Amino acid sequence: MAAGRRLRCLSPACLFLAVAVAILAMPGLAAARTRRYTFNVTMATVTRLCVTKSVPTVNGRFPGPKIVVREGDRLVVQVHNNINNNVTFHWHGVRQLRSGWSDGPSYITQCPIRPGQSYAYDFRIVGQRGTLWWHAHFSWLRATLYGPLVILPPRGVTYPFSPKPDREVPLMLGEWFNADPEAVIKQALKTGGGPNVSDAYTFNGLPGPTYNSCAAADTFRLRVQPGQTYMLRIVNAALNDELFFAVANHSLTVVGADASYVKPFVSNTLVISPGQTMDVLLTAAAANPSSPAAYAIAVAPYTNTVGTFDNTTAVAALEYAPGAALSSSLPLPPLPLYNDTGFVANFSANFRSLASARYPARVPRSVDRRFFFAVGLGADPCQSRVNGTCQGPNGTRFAASMNNVSFAMPRSTSLLQAHYQRRYSGVLTANFPAAPPVPFNYTGTPPNNTFVMHGTRVVPLGYNATVEVVLQDTSILGAESHPLHLHGYDFFVVGTGFGNYDANNDTAKYNLVDPVQRNTISVPTAGWVAIRFVADNPGVWIMHCHLDVHLSWGLAMAWLVNDGPLPNQKLPPPPSNIPKC
Q1: Model-level pTM greater than 0.85?
Q2: pLDDT at 198 over 90
Q3: Distances (CA, A) of 550 to 177, 240, 476
Q4: Which of 511, 547, 546, 554 is closest to 529 using CA atoms?
């Protein structure tokens, strides 16, 4: 063949290949990959705060390994349970479109993985990019079984904000218990009182120097270069505490939340609830020999609880010079008071979706089903049948509910399995109330009767129904914030306010243009929040408080979303290796 000549192929097969190559070369349209991870759940010895103990871990690491995928990828995680506890894993915030069998909450979408058993979670990442996370979803095992889930944009697609980060750093905020967290919640459920609180907050598993001499060596250090920009992928993995977050002498630019981009805004202090994630830009200052070699990164709790809480401050280091001295005397960034609800409301009001051509905010403008859920604490009477004591308020036992129904977990099967087999009898009832059975002054003087009902009640929804839920905090046993997480869906936060929700006046103030899109939202202390979503994902999806003590007391409900008419709108059969109850 003469030099410089090219072969030409005009057959249909060649033309198809040429078009396919051209399409795959376009930004964002490269072929998705299957990413595979293995989780070996084992006990490992960990020392924090001078206390050495054995804790559940994934692959012997605390926190667990980072998972990295790109939007559009398939993710397969093979879990082998080698501890003496049952376990499941939840991929917090992943939409799980038609893959509800991999969502992970125990007895909701699967039975637990028993000791010695294995299970493969298999799902795709669709229409999401940013930071999510994974954690155990059985009892309080997520105290140590958690890690980041980073979703990068497709290859060739850039971030819609600037400056572009020079480095990305997952930052998991957690809680450390010197005691066994499983023993802590078991004791609380036995006594009917509140659980013992954690002993420290942590950055990527490390408490820092503010606690004791042992903790000083266990300090997370973020080494930075002057002038460079860092994207902190922040996750609140704490069991029971919303947290303030700040870096001394540095401002923070929020660019994402719950794996959705937001209109960038600047703040010196963040507040982040359990379950929530934020992508935040931090630009290191220009080189200056007279500047400190390190700055404190601090977290402290936000709460209005009338009970006890971990009122400590944890510190990490932002280091401009390696090995910089760090002590408890390092100047801390100013943080709001622990009960500064006004700051929390002002900060939360900054969140807006991009609502751009590439990343539109598809907010439901009309609503098919409206719900009003009163959310809060309550009580169970002290009865002789209770195998324990009654150390709750006024000789009762603590409980929690939505619309006065405290959620009871099934035990004989999972709700999703019952739904797939259409065997509901004895497992669930489709009569969760759309509004409180007895209306009252939700944020005023509480009613005399604070006892709750119990049941495994769900709300059935038709496929593609548009849904609005107003979540109303109550003052029963004290008004406080409740971070509510919805599995299987993102939702738009269309309105919020303080006091009792007023449909006649508050609906007109909704933001239907660029509301933030999230999977976890805090119901304001003595206030309300309104969310909207489209029920386009068939299955059974739990919505619950992400303060684990409240979930343990029953602050949850479930949506049962029926199949649509088309094949791609139906729940597939369960995997053959799904655990049995």
Answers
A1: yes
A2: yes
A3: 18, 8, 14
A4: 511
